[in-house]
């Protein structure tokens, strides 16, 4: 109980300024619309993006959405910074794939479509076990215990090939068991819809959780654990239950991943995986419920697409994080909410020209910078293939002065213009915010 | 010594001080009175360079507006913030140590002076300041600032949460400061000691000075008291 | 006796090495409360810079130049990145160092390639210092121990002879008040972060050739140095020192212990066969888990004594 | 005499080697309003911390309605019907005012750790929270985040959370600290209003508040309760005069109301 | 030579291995090796006259990511995939290819495994569509223990390895083979340590010294190998060390930095082939990239593929797979044969010794001034091991 409430709030990682816009609250009709739109997107996405790769990505996005949302139950809602969330999704995945193998052998009479629930149960059980010790603590000690447990489990995973399958992991075949209506889950698209269904339901359930007494007390524990004790709640128990629920959803996502990949290897419990959940949940925005959804989508895109597009993807990723944390610590969700607030006061239309200008100039700057980064990488990695490379269709010569000068020029121009746009935008934004504050005051006075 | 003219201060976009002007002379206790939210603390922060402001703030004849807080502190202005900003994880002694600006320079005040002033602090010397009682914390902040050997000390609501006897004690010590040639800008809202010890009183309302005069005149000016100090 | 002496020597020297690696982190973590995930990256930079500069000017100048360069980079990072996010809290601080570690890794690979570089121990320091029971003790290891002790001394002086530690701790909760008392808080923060980075850099100069200088070296030491800092007690230099030695010695001796739970079970008359439940777990020897003992330590420590060995606070 | 609402029996507390509370005895009857006064550092807040379970006592007993509560956790004590506020504002900064209050009422209405019901459907809890909102006069700030409230509003919210659970014994630690005279006055009325029929203990330095609010005054000096009596008798008490009152400041404060 | 009907056709191979992250160095070297060999063996240089094209996909060393890259490759129309770095990813690909071919008849893929050496891939988990070009752990151990059979002075050996499937398998096969060939050799001790977790190997060295072993056998690779060697040098423990992976990118440099040491490596190649087609590749690769060409399996793989396409008269994987079974081609060290029963290539094995370059062995590995010199050569039958593979073969065709 030595942690001051200030510490606790800081650990929750919320940006105070962004939080002020929390008041924006869609009407209930709005909520219906949002959920229907979400369902619709899940339904039609694979019809629009129909290549095999994009379907794989969509399935993985569904899985990632569940796990990132479950992670945010801890981080965003409970102020618990976990470095070991992959342990729970991973254990869910392992148990699920073992169960799948049992189904395959005919020992376990369970429809494949319910397998994720097995994963969920496994995740929850794991959380019951480890959560008992981790949730005794909050703040930094909590973070460090989860780090330790994560490292231990990962190291152990390679040592126990019986259960974890060693380097090769455990593989399985999802086309087993009963086949209701001829659904075998063999084709990716069938699996996609199963995952989409789970994603939708889990998102709904997790959102519902934020509206329950426990969900609210979890927020209270994040903000000021000390006070919570004086309104009758055991903070430890609040954290523990929430931890188990988060473990359950993480386990579901693990179970879905087991179905999707039909193989589970030790990397699913690795620290790198946990780190990715943390980074992308934060990037999406931990202070808003829907933030992690954005984060999850970006995570899959970064790992699957970006890494194919450029060898420098880790560098870009690092830079994106650096800048996001510096300039938008509330994540993408907070940027969206800020603009929604402006929109709700009918002022967004004034801004779009600025946005276009900003985006345009930023793009130019980026192009210049990326051109140079790509040339450096090319020089370093593919020098033997000759100095030429094409970057977005533009032929560049990594050893030619003209390419470099060109890139520098493009970047410098972009940067200059961007700065000009940024300044005007900043002034404009400030003015609008001022007006909005005034308007709020006025409404308050009226009320 | 301290001369303030046409001072405007802002929190982001909200304009809090509207052209404040007053002076504090050498060896003088000036009380700055006013209701909650009238802008007294903001004035103090503006002098210390802790908020955005425009206008003139002169100290011993040189402009100090726009300087960093630590530079201003080095010029000899001490600030005792409101709401007891003690450093909770440091011991009482360490808190006092941080009041000193450099390790070398010898000031008017020693640790012993401080402990002599409030024996309670001496007893609690090696305790974490965070667990001190509310009143003890208040004493500590005052002493901490004195350790920096200021020529002018700005005290924001020092008697808050102090037992009546201690309030009186603080009043006496402020007078002692004055005797040692230190100027005091005392921010208060309960008139109790302010009226007794100050040489001059200022009343602030809505971000500007609405009254200047001796405590005596203020006591007589029922209108000002009613309009700007009480309900 | 022979085995014991040598193991003790190995344990102490490994412990000192751990301390060398984590001292900068302790400094930053204890003072600024920043979980600097890029600490190991600074360590790596130190090694690569030393490799680069020692090719030009030799090892001894590199020993000085390289930490200074790393410290400078650390200070710049604090000045232009970390400082901006400080006000948002610990999680963003941690994430920004996370981001930095990606960038450093990529840049290192771009400049020095993806495989290990040939960074060697200088001739003066290679070879054995003395031979004990037929086992050599290398000079370089002694040098490493010496530097670790120097680091301890330097940080200790910094903490006890100056008020920097107090200023920073106070500034963590009340930066404005500390400034109003006349302390240039931003500069102190920058110096401390730069100093911590420089210590990591120095560890890199020395660890880089003692071990392997390659892009994976940061990832390899990353987690374990956190263990040292936490087990020792956040905010406690002495704790970090004791924890390093304890971990070093225990881990070293654990390698020599070949008993397992199965052995323990059989002494109480329980016979486990390969078919019994969890056989692989039972037959696991202590020597097999020696390298991950630190993490067990960490978990147990946080459960039973969250302040750490010599720490005073939990958060 | 009926069972006292709150009783302290030879309560002691040491931090390290210093004994801060040195055998405090006190017996408060149900429905009494007690002001706890005493010099700075006398141990008033510590006493509250011991009663509410924030610190464990070194020795001695605390009885709530005759039941021993020393050694229990804060949340257990709270569930038994004792609630407290803090000298330094202690609210949920990132929740709205309404949510702050609702957090205060949930346990007492039996919702415990449930996650199978929607908050929006808990009519009784919502009604109670709205009611509290009116009582502390923050209706207009209903959806404002607590951290964006002014200081006085935060203090009011602090009290609101404290009384939210409907506890029968309420401890307030310097509820009016940092408020102006007019606000203080309004606040005393508020406290009186919301604690009707409850047992109230409050720490105060402002004699005006003390005499305006209390049925009885307990004087804590150096970790002991040296006097516990009606205001007039306490004022007349010689020891109290020496230790605490007896200054022009106190007189001025007391005269103010 | 009659012109092949396939001439001029392009055969595209998707290479999936880590191209970023901690193992990027190995992956990038191997991608270059594939591309270089493909360039050399295209057109007239293969009996089918086809052009080989190798495109790199970054699987980040992760089994799951490998499945994504596999999907990406399939989307882009690749029918041949190759991978080698790590058996984890290898098993994932083997399994996924099997399933894909099962579910998508007519669109089959072939997987060339050039370095993933887990024996299970050609035993209990074997697949018709998987062809391994490297020698697996058991074969290498067969060669190694055969060498020991001829070293009567060797009396006790210490075995140390990483505690994961590869390290465990090395230990297991070593003990089995030794029991068969040299039951008199004592196993002085056995240590399995967590992979990538040990920073300081001196405690292990002390333990080895204590045990009085005359030699060390280890399957360690990367840091775990170099740090072990360094710790031995530091402590002055000068006993020979038998390894699997002393030649992997980065390790030689680190070995050299640690000074002289007695390290043996068992492999299907060595660094001093300077003549013939392979000699040209090795030397020109070095000239072009200033990097070592050590993944000779790329050469064998393309040789086999070319021959199989010519034999099948088609580049259709279903037909090529059939043609590959039992196929024999002439390679850099005699003939190599793709055993039909388990799709494990049978080839000559070498024991290489780490030593300073000399006249007979001039090739400087990673420009360190050291080289791997062959000290022993075993004909394919010596290291051949039995298989438990029960292959599911496609019914038609
Ligand atoms: N950090 C801040 N951001 C925005 N507005 C602020 C901030 N601090 C104070 N204000 C506003 O500035 C005005 C003046 O505040 P100030 O603290 O100077 O008043 P005060 O006279 O010291 O009153 P108090 O008795 O509350 O200390 C108030 O309206 C207050 O709401
Ligand atoms: N956790 C602790 N550790 C050590 N000393 C403590 C601790 N908590 C309180 N004290 C000491 O106990 C004494 C009594 O403190 P307490 O806060 O109860 O005083 P108080 O009567 O409330 O005074 P005030 O009116 O000034 O608030 C103080 O001297 C304080 O320093
Ligand atoms: C990178 C390689 C040395 C990995 C090795 N092929 C293995 O199976 O683990
Ligand atoms: Mg104020
Ligand atoms: Mg108190």
UniProtKB/TrEMBL annotation, chain A:
InterPro entries: ABC_transp_permease (IPR001851), LivM-like (IPR043428). It holds the Pfam family BPD_transp_2. This is Branched-chain amino acid ABC transporter permease. It is a multi-pass membrane protein. The lineage of its organism: Bacteria, Pseudomonadati, Pseudomonadota, Betaproteobacteria, Burkholderiales. The chain crosses the membrane at residues 29-49, 55-74, 86-104, 110-130, 142-160, 191-209, 240-259, 279-306, 313-340, 352-373. The keyword Chloroplast does not apply. It comes from the Bacteria. It comes from Ramlibacter aquaticus. Keywords: Cell membrane, Membrane, Transmembrane, Transmembrane helix. Its main location: membrane. PANTHER family: ABC TRANSPORTER ATP-BINDING PROTEIN, HIGH-AFFINITY BRANCHED-CHAIN AMINO ACID TRANSPORT SYSTEM PERMEASE. It is found in: Cell membrane.
Automatic annotation (TrEMBL), chain B:
Gene3D superfamilies: P-loop containing nucleotide triphosphate hydrolases (3.40.50.300). PANTHER family: ABC TRANSPORTER ATP-BINDING PROTEIN, HIGH-AFFINITY BRANCHED-CHAIN AMINO ACID TRANSPORT ATP-BINDING PROTEIN LIVF. Belongs to the ABC transporter superfamily. PROSITE patterns: ABC_TRANSPORTER_1 (PS00211), ABC_TRANSPORTER_2 (PS50893). InterPro entries: AAA+_ATPase (IPR003593), ABC_transporter-like_ATP-bd (IPR003439), ABC_transporter-like_CS (IPR017871), BCAA_Transport_ATP-bd_LivF (IPR052156), P-loop_NTPase (IPR027417). It comes from Ramlibacter aquaticus. This is ABC transporter ATP-binding protein. It holds the Pfam family ABC_tran. SUPFAM superfamilies: P-loop containing nucleoside triphosphate hydrolases. Signal peptide: none annotated. Keywords: Amino-acid transport, ATP-binding, Cell membrane, Membrane, Nucleotide-binding, Transport. GO terms for molecular function: ATP binding. The keyword Translocase does not apply. Residues 2-231 form the ABC transporter domain. The keyword Cell membrane applies.
UniProtKB/TrEMBL annotation, chain C:
It is found in: Cell membrane. The chain crosses the membrane at residues 12-38, 58-82, 94-112, 139-159, 188-212, 224-246, 253-274, 286-304. The keyword Nucleotide-binding does not apply. InterPro entries: ABC_transp_permease, BCAA_transport_permease. CDD domains: TM_PBP1_LivH_like. Keywords: Amino-acid transport, Cell membrane, Membrane, Transmembrane, Transmembrane helix, Transport. It comes from the Bacteria. Pfam families: BPD_transp_2 (PF02653). It is a multi-pass membrane protein. Belongs to the binding-protein-dependent transport system permease family. LivHM subfamily. PANTHER family: ABC TRANSPORTER ATP-BINDING PROTEIN, BRANCHED-CHAIN AMINO ACID TRANSPORT SYSTEM PERMEASE PROTEIN LIVH. This is Branched-chain amino acid ABC transporter permease. It comes from Ramlibacter aquaticus. The lineage of its organism: Bacteria, Pseudomonadati, Pseudomonadota, Betaproteobacteria, Burkholderiales.
Automatic annotation (TrEMBL), chain D:
One of its GO terms (molecular function) is ATP binding. The keyword DNA-binding does not apply. Residues 6-247 form the ABC transporter domain. CDD domains: ABC_Mj1267_LivG_branched. SMART domains: AAA. Transmembrane segments: none annotated. Keywords: ATP-binding, Cell membrane, Membrane, Nucleotide-binding, Transport. SUPFAM superfamilies: P-loop containing nucleoside triphosphate hydrolases (SSF52540). The keyword Metal-binding does not apply. It comes from the Bacteria. PANTHER family: ABC TRANSPORTER ATP-BINDING PROTEIN, CONSERVED COMPONENT OF ABC TRANSPORTER FOR NATURAL AMINO ACIDS-RELATED. This is ABC transporter ATP-binding protein. It comes from Ramlibacter aquaticus.
């Amino acid at each position: 109980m030595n942690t001051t409430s200030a510490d606790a709030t800081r650990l929750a990682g919320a940006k105070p300024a962004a939080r002020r816009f929390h008041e924006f609250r869609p009407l209930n009709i709005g909520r219906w619309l949002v959920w229907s739109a979400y369902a619709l997107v899940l339904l039609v996405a694979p019809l629009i993006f129909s290549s095999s790769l994009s379907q794989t990505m969509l399935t993985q996005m569904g899985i990632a959405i569940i796990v990132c949302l479950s992670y945010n139950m801890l981080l965003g809602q409970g102020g618990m910074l976990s470095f070991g969330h992959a342990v729970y999704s991973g254990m869910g995945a392992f148990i699920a794939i073992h169960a799948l193998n049992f189904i395959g052998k005919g020992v376990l009479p369970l429809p494949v479509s319910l397998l994720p629930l097995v994963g969920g149960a496994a995740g929850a059980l794991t959380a019951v076990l480890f959560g008992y010790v981790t949730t005794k603590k909050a703040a930094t000690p909590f973070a460090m215990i989860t780090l330790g447990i994560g490292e231990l489990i990962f190291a152990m995973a390679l040592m126990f090939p019986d259960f974890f399958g060693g380097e090769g992991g455990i593989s399985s075949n999802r086309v087993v068991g009963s086949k209701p209506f001829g659904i075998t889950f063999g084709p990716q698209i069938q699996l996609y819809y199963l995952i989409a269904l789970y994603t939708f339901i889990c998102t709904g359930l997790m959102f519902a959780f934020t509206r329950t007494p426990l969900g609210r007390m979890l927020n209270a524990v994040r903000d000021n654990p000390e006070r919570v004790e004086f309104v009758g709640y055991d903070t430890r128990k609040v954290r523990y239950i929430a931890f188990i629920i988060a473990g359950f959803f993480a386990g579901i996502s693990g179970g879905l991943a087991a179905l999707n990949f039909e193989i589970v290897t030790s990397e699913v419990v690795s620290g790198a995986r946990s780190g990715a959940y943390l980074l992308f949940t934060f990037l999406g925005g931990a202070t808003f419920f829907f933030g992690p959804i954005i984060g999850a989508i970006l995570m899959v895109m970064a790992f699957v697409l970006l890494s194919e597009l450029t060898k420098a993807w880790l560098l870009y990723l690092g830079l994106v994080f650096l800048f996001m944390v510096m300039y938008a610590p509330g994540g993408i969700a907070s940027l969206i909410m800020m603009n929604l607030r402006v929109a709700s006061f009918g002022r967004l239309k004034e801004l779009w020209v600025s946005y276009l200008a900003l985006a345009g100039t930023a793009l130019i700057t980026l192009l210049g910078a990326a051109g140079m980064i790509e040339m450096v990488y090319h020089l370093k990695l593919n020098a033997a293939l000759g100095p030429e490379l094409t970057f977005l269709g533009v032929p560049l010569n990594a050893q030619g002065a003209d390419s470099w000068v060109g890139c520098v020029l493009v970047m410098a121009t972009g940067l200059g213009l961007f700065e000009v746009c940024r300044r005007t935008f900043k002034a404009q934004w400030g003015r609008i915010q001022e007006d909005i504050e005034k308007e709020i005051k006025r409404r308050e006075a009226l009320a | 010594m301290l001369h303030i003219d046409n001072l405007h201060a802002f929190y982001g976009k909200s304009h809090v001080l509207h052209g404040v002007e007053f002076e504090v002379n050498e060896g003088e206790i000036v009380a700055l009175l006013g209701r909650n939210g009238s802008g007294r603390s903001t004035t103090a922060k503006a002098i210390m360079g802790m908020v955005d402001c425009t206008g003139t703030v002169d100290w011993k004849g040189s402009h100090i507006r726009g300087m960093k807080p630590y530079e201003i502190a080095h010029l000899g202005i001490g600030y005792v913030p409101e709401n007891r900003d003690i450093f909770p994880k440091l011991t009482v002694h360490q808190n006092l140590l941080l009041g000193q600006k450099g390790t070398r320079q010898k000031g008017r005040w020693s640790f012993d002076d401080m402990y002599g002033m409030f024996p309670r602090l001496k007893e609690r010397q090696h305790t974490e300041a965070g667990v001190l009682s509310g009143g003890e914390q208040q004493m500590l902040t005052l002493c901490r600032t004195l350790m920096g050997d200021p020529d002018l000390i700005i005290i924001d609501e020092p008697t808050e949460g102090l037992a009546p006897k201690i309030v009186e004690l603080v009043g006496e010590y402020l007078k002692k400061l004055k005797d040692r040639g230190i100027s005091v800008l005392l921010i208060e809202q309960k008139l109790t000691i302010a009226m007794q010890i100050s040489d001059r009183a200022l009343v602030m309302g809505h971000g500007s000075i609405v009254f200047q005069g001796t405590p005596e005149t203020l006591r007589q000016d029922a209108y000002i008291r009613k309009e700007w100090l009480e309900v | 006796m022979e085995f014991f002496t040598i193991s003790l020597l190995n344990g102490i020297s490994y412990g000192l090495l751990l301390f060398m690696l984590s001292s900068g982190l302790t400094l930053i973590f204890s003072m600024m409360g920043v979980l600097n995930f890029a600490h190991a990256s600074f360590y790596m930079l130190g090694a690569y810079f030393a490799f680069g500069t020692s090719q030009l000017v030799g090892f001894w100048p590199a020993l000085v130049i390289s930490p200074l360069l790393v410290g400078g980079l650390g200070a710049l990072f604090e000045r232009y990145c970390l400082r901006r996010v400080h006000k948002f809290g610990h999680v963003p601080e941690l994430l920004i160092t996370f981001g930095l570690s990606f960038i450093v890794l990529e840049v290192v690979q771009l400049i020095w390639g993806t495989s290990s570089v040939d960074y060697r121990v200088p001739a003066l320091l290679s070879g054995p210092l003395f031979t004990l029971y037929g086992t050599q003790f290398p000079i370089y290891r002694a040098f490493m121990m010496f530097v670790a002790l120097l680091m301890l001394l330097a940080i200790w002086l910094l903490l006890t002879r100056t008020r920097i530690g107090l200023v920073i701790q106070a500034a963590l909760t009340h930066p404005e008040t500390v400034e109003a008392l006349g302390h240039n808080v931003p500069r102190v923060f920058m110096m401390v972060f730069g100093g911590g980075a420089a210590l990591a850099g120095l560890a890199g100069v020395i660890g880089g050739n003692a071990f392997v200088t390659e892009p994976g070296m940061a990832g390899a030491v990353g987690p374990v140095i956190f263990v040292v800092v936490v087990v020792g007690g956040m905010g406690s230099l002495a704790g970090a020192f004791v924890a390093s030695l304890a971990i070093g010695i225990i881990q070293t001796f654990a390698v020599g212990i070949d008993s397992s739970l199965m052995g323990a079970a059989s002494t109480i008359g329980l016979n486990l066969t390969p078919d019994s439940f969890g056989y692989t777990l039972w037959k696991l020897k202590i020597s097999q888990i020696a390298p991950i003992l630190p993490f067990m330590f960490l978990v147990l420590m946080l459960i039973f004594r969250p302040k750490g060995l010599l720490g005073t606070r939990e958060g | 005499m009926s069972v006292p609402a709150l009783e302290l029996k030879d309560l002691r507390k040491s931090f390290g080697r210093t004994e801060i509370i040195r055998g405090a005895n006190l017996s408060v009857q149900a429905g009494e309003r007690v002001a706890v006064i005493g010099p700075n550092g006398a141990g008033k807040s510590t006493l509250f911390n011991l009663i509410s379970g924030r610190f464990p006592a070194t020795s001695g007993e605390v009885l709530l309605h005759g039941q021993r509560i020393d050694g229990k956790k804060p949340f257990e004590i709270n569930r038994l019907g004792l609630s407290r506020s803090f000298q330094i504002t202690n609210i949920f900064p990132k929740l709205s005012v309404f949510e702050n209050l609702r957090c205060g009422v949930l346990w007492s209405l039996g919702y415990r750790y449930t996650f199978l019901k929607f908050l929006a459907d808990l009519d009784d809890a919502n009604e109670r929270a709205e009611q509290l909102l009116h009582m502390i006069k923050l209706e207009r700030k209903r959806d404002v985040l607590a951290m964006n409230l002014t200081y006085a509003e935060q203090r009011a919210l602090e009290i609101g959370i404290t009384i939210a659970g409907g506890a029968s014994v309420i401890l307030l630690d310097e509820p009016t600290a940092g408020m102006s005279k007019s606000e203080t006055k309004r606040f005393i009325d508020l406290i009186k209003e919301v604690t009707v029929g409850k047992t109230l203990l409050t720490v105060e330095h402002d004699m005006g508040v003390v005499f305006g609010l209390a049925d009885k005054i307990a004087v804590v000096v150096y970790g002991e309760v040296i006097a516990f009596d009606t205001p007039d008798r306490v004022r007349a008490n010689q020891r109290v005069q020496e230790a605490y009152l007896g200054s022009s400041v106190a007189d001025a404060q007391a005269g103010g109301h | 030579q009659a012109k092949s009907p396939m001439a001029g056709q392009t055969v595209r191979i998707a290479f999936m291995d880590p191209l970023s992250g901690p193992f990027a160095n190995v992956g990038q070297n191997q991608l270059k090796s594939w591309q270089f060999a493909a360039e050399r063996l295209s057109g007239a240089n293969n009996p089918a006259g086809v052009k080989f094209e190798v495109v790199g996909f970054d699987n980040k060393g992760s089994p799951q990511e490998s499945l994504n890259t596999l999907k990406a490759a399939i989307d882009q129309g690749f029918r041949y995939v190759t991978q080698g770095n790590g058996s984890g990813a290898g098993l994932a690909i083997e399994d996924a290819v099997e399933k894909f071919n099962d579910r998508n008849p007519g669109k089959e893929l072939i997987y060339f495994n050039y370095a993933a050496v887990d024996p299970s891939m050609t035993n209990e988990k074997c697949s018709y569509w998987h062809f391994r070009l490297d020698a697996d752990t058991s074969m290498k151990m067969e060669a190694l223990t055969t060498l020991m059979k001829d070293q009567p002075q060797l009396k006790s050996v210490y075995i140390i390895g990483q505690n994961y499937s590869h390290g465990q398998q090395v230990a297991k096969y070593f003990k089995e083979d030794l029991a068969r060939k040299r039951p008199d050799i004592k196993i002085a001790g056995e240590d399995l340590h967590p992979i990538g977790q040990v920073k300081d190997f001196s405690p292990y060295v002390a333990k080895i010294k204590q045990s009085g072993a005359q030699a060390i056998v280890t399957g360690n690779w990367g840091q775990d190998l170099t740090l072990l060697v360094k710790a031995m040098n530091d402590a002055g423990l000068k006993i020979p060390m038998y390894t699997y992976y002393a030649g992997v990118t980065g390790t030689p440099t680190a070995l050299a930095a640690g000074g002289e040491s007695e390290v043996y490596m068992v492999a299907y190649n060595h660094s001093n082939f300077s003549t013939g087609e392979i000699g040209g590749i090795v030397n020109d690769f070095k000239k072009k990239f200033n990097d070592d060409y050590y993944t000779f399996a790329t050469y064998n793989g393309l040789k086999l593929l070319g021959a199989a396409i010519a034999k099948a008269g088609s580049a259709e994987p279903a037909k090529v797979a059939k043609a590959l079974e039992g196929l024999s081609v002439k390679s850099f060290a005699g003939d190599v044969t793709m055993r039909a029963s388990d799709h494990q290539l049978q080839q000559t094995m070498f024991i290489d010794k780490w030593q300073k370059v000399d006249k007979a062995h001039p090739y400087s590995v990673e420009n360190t001034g050291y080289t791997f010199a062959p000290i022993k050569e075993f004909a394919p039958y010596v290291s051949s091991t039995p298989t438990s593979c029960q292959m599911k073969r496609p019914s038609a065709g």
